[in-house]
Structure formats: C-alpha cells, structure tokens
Write a structure and sequence with these properties.
Blueprint lengths: L4 E4 L11 H8 L4 E3 L16 H14 L5 E6 L1 H12 L4 E7 L12 H15 L4 H4 L5 H14 L12 H16 L4 H4 L6 E6 L7 H10 L3 E6 L6 H4 L1 H13 L1
Parallel strand pairs: 1-2, 1-3, 3-4, 4-5, 5-6
Length: 252
C-alpha cells in the first residue's frame, strides 16, 4: 500500500488553492491528505512566523492522524516546510516532491514582498488575478494556462475554505524572508537520503529557478524537472505531465 500523500502549500494559500487536476490525478492511486496549517484558512490559532514552527505543526498533524510514514509534497513555502520535516524527522518520510521551492538562504527568496506588491499592482491595472503574473510567464500560451488553472480552482462552489487572514499573510511573509536570509542549508541537505522529485518552471520569479537547481545539486537522491516557458506555477501549467512524473516517481 502506498504511503499517504501529505501536502503543504504556498504563501496565502488555503485548501481551495490546490489544483484539482493534480489532486485528482494523484488520488486515483494514492491516499491524498491536504490540510491548512495552524491559523490558515479554516484552522484555528495563530500562524507562526517561522518555517521551523510550521514544520512542527505539520508533524503534529501527520502524527495525530496515525501515519507512521508519508510521501510528502511541498509547494513553495510548503517546500520549505517539507525540507525541515525531512531533516528533523526523517523516519516520518518515505519520498518527497518539492515544487517551486528552494533551500534556506536561497538567492532572491527574501524579495518576495516586493514581488507580491508589484504583481498585485499590475493585476489591478490589467484587471487580472495576481497569479497570472506570479505563477505564469508572460507568453500567450502560459497566460492561457493561467486562465485554465484559475477556472479549475473555482470549480467547487459549496463549502469553500476560509480565506487567509492578515495575520497569516504577515506571518508567512516574515517566515519566507527569514528563510531567505538564513544561513545556507545546502550542506545540511546533502545528508537527506530520501528520494526527491524537484519541479519548477524555467522562469520562476517568486523562488528563482536557480534554487530548484541548487536543491537538485545538494540532495544526493534527487531528480529534477524544469518545465519550459513557465513560472512559479509550472506544475499547474503542465499538470498532466507533472502528475505523470509524480506517479512514476512514487511507484519506483
């Protein structure tokens, strides 16, 4: 039996921000568990302002459900959390998928505040969703994929999750900046022995694609998938290909 697929997601995201095409694709053959961390969406409490504390909360969630071991998927900020879990509780993890993420101390990670502000300003001017600019490249093909992705996120209308609070946004931004300004974790990552699949677009402006390459070079048992003409949300632009890669990776 495959391990449960436990997922951590990105800045400002709640359960509604998980792409159903990816979740349904994995759930066809795996037990998928997604959750809001402390203070996020429908979860009570105050969102912590450090990745380490977020990782402790995720570990507590996994253990509270009685899972002895999981396949862990971390996207963006969730990828930071997944790295900490793998290093602090390696026995809890079988395999890891890291998307749109990077090591502590990665170049450009701490610039996220300015990048967000610029995207929201542009979105207001062009009457588009900020994810058009944060997750996708400017090309016509990538922007078309953005429209399809956002439409998928709106498919389910009943019982939708609660939007993030201002407290959560500020805490998550603080945690990301601290991660970006922290000493490099490259040497520590060389001790992580889990099989890891790393995925990103070739033009990620939120967690620069070079960070994905740095992860691949540091992790001793890693595979790297870089999607062309794609940004931070490359896995959403190429959802079918990403699901296929992930299923093959989990089955190996």
């Amino acid at each position: 039996m495959a391990c449960p697929w436990s997922s951590c997601t990105n800045l400002t995201a709640v359960l509604e921000d998980w792409d159903p095409k990816i979740l349904d694709g994995i759930a066809g053959s795996h037990h998928v568990v997604i959750f809001d961390n402390r203070g996020v969406g429908g979860s009570s409490g105050q969102t912590p302002a450090s990745v380490a504390d977020m990782a402790e909360d995720a570990i507590a969630f996994i253990e509270a459900h009685g899972f002895a071991q999981v396949d862990l998927f971390g996207f963006s900020l969730g990828g930071f959390v997944a790295q900490v879990i793998a290093q602090t509780r390696p026995e809890l993890v079988r395999k890891i998928v890291l998307a749109g993420t990077g090591p502590a101390g990665g170049i450009g990670v701490s610039d996220v505040g300015a990048i967000l502000q610029g995207a929201f300003q542009r979105a207001g001017v062009e009457h588009k969703h900020p994810k058009h600019f944060l997750f996708f490249s400017p090309s016509a093909q990538s922007q078309k994929a953005a429209d399809a992705f956002l439409q998928r996120l709106d498919e389910r209308q009943a019982d939708r999750d609660t939007a993030v609070s201002d407290q959560t946004v500020q805490a998550q931004l603080t945690a990301i900046v601290r991660w970006g300004q922290a000493p490099s974790s490259i040497e520590a990552l060389k001790q992580v022995r889990h099989p890891v699949l790393i995925a990103n677009g070739d033009a990620d402006i939120m967690v620069p694609t070079t960070s994905s390459i740095a992860l691949f070079e540091a992790l001793p048992n890693a595979k790297l998938s870089i999607f062309p003409d794609a940004g931070h949300g490359g896995i959403f632009q190429y959802a079918d290909a990403f699901v296929d890669q992930t299923l093959r990776f989990l089955a190996e």
